[in-house]
Design a protein that fits this description.
single chain; OB fold (Dihydrolipoamide Acetyltransferase, E2P); Dihydrolipoamide Transferase; Chloramphenicol Acetyltransferase; 4-stranded antiparallel beta sheet; 8 helices
Length: 462
């Protein structure tokens, strides 16, 4: 005898209380296997795909895309086992019906459909359901509906009869989930974009260019007012709460230093030419991270946590190095565990993988927790310096500004007659620290050490 199993929204992070439904990958009536992805949700830390804990048939979907759901609430019901449900006849129509209109595509040749799915497919990251195996590949089609769906199991999610019926083919739109999310945020219609990405996919740049074009002011398309309202959800909501808490809890002090990094830039060229770095990104940020790790050994208090409840300052003897990354969902700070033990090549590999994963929206919650020290690279936006806000639980954060060619006074000794002005590579660093645990002298010494290594990388050998 078959039975109904409710799949409740789990806590996919550390004490998270809610998540937003981003995308359903199944619809009512679909046959699913264990570990097959059912839905993608966005938590306060990252986007996560939830695999099915059961094998069976999708009986009802209780929550629409875009809705915020508390942890523990049923979001989908699966029919598990063979036979009929108790009290149900053979003519019982499917319950729910949500998800039939999710990213519909027309009939496609098998190779094109597989290519589209391969572009958007991601690995399930929810801990506890095992490793995702071979997934059932299917092509979703929008087909005419002749049956009247029954009322949804959730009264708030009522499906209008015939709402999903279609008689005309729908034009295929290829875009990765993060790109679709960006288009939704910017209010861009993917169907009206000319794709320039590989295999006819719409890229992030395509969406940004479409958003930058002035909209035609017509009576049907002109907005009713001079403002746009963006819901505060997911990563943005979490970031806002964390920054407010940090700014009004930890007494921030920020110090700045301007550094001649010409020697560092020359070393970067030599390192990038070495065989072990051939397929790695050797950026200035890599050397800033290396310098910060070296300086932490000399001033370990910057790698600590203020424990108010325990009345202690907890100094960490490991460095989980956070690298702030701007994504479509907002600013996130995944961290590299045990960064202090990595070689320069290992650090480069970890940083490249971390930022690429973050920008694709695949960062698992485990990479978002446990950070001990953070670097934010504002230089990539052409910004010289800033006053970064501490990540909650961390004692310091380092801002790395743009590296520019500037006139600089150089010379030898104290004799001004030996001084001259040359074009040099120059950058600015800004260090914010928690003045409860880090004294001004300690913060200054740490920042001076970072600057010294960037000015003369050979100091790291001492």
């Amino acid at each position: 005898m078959a039975e109904l199993k409710d799949f409740k929204l789990p806590d996919v992070g550390e004490g998270l209380t809610e998540a937003d439904i981003l995308r359903w990958d199944v619809k009512v009536g679909d046959v699913v296997t264990v570990n097959q992805v059912l839905v993608e949700v966005e938590t306060a830390k990252a986007a996560v795909e939830l695999p099915s804990p059961y094998a069976g048939t999708v009986h009802a979907i209780h929550v629409e895309e875009g809705v915020t759901v508390p942890v523990g609430q049923p979001i989908v019901t699966l029919k598990v086992g063979e036979g009929e449900l108790a009290g149900a006849g053979n003519d019982t129509p499917p319950v729910g019906g949500a998800g039939e209109d999710l990213v519909p595509t027309p009939d496609l040749p098998a190779d094109e459909a597989d290519q589209e799915l391969a572009t958007a497919e991601r690995q399930a990251v929810l801990v506890g359901y095992g490793v995702a195996g071979e997934r059932a590949r299917r092509r979703r089609r929008l087909q005419p509906s002749h049956a009247q769906p029954a009322p949804s199991a959730n009264p708030a999610f009522e499906v209008t009869p015939g709402a999903h019926a279609a008689t005309a083919p729908v034009e295929r739109v290829l875009a990765k989930p993060p790109v679709r999310k960006l288009a939704k945020t910017l209010g861009v219609d993917l169907a009206g974009i000319v794709a320039t990405g590989p295999n006819g996919t719409i890229s992030r740049e395509d969406v940004q260019q479409a958003a930058a074009k002035p909209a035609l002011a017509t009576p049907s398309s002109a907005p009713s007012g001079g403002e746009t309202r963006i819901p505060i959800k997911g990563v943005r909501k979490h970031t806002a709460a964390a920054m407010v808490s940090s700014a009004f809890t930890a007494p921030h002090v920020t110090e700045f230093v301007t550094v001649d990094v010409t020697e560092m830039m020359e070393l970067r060229k030599r390192v990038a030419a070495r065989p072990e770095f051939r397929n790695l990104k050797v950026s200035p940020l890599l050397f800033v991270a290396r310098a910060a790790l070296w300086a932490i050994k000399r001033t370990p208090i910057v790698n600590s946590t203020w424990d108010e409840a325990g009345g202690e300052i907890v100094v960490k003897h490991y460095v989980n190095l956070g690298i702030a990354a701007a994504t479509d969902r907002g600013l996130i700070v995944p961290n590299i565990k045990g960064a202090e033990s990595l070689s320069l090549a290992g650090l480069a590999e970890a940083m490249t993988g971390l930022t690429e994963t973050a920008r694709s929206g695949k960062t698992p919650p485990s990479d978002m927790s446990g950070g001990t020290f953070t670097i934010t690279n504002i230089g990539v936006f052409g910004i010289d310096t800033g006053t970064p806000i501490l990540n909650p639980g961390e004692a310091a954060i380092l801002a790395f500004g743009a590296v520019r060619r500037q006139p600089w006074v150089v010379g030898t000794g104290d004799d001004e007659r030996n001084e001259r002005i040359e074009p040099r590579w120059v950058t600015q660093l800004g260090l914010s620290f928690d003045h409860r645990s880090v004294d001004g002298q300690q913060g200054s010494e740490f920042l001076a050490d970072v600057a010294a290594v960037l000015r003369d990388p050979g100091l790291a050998l001492l």
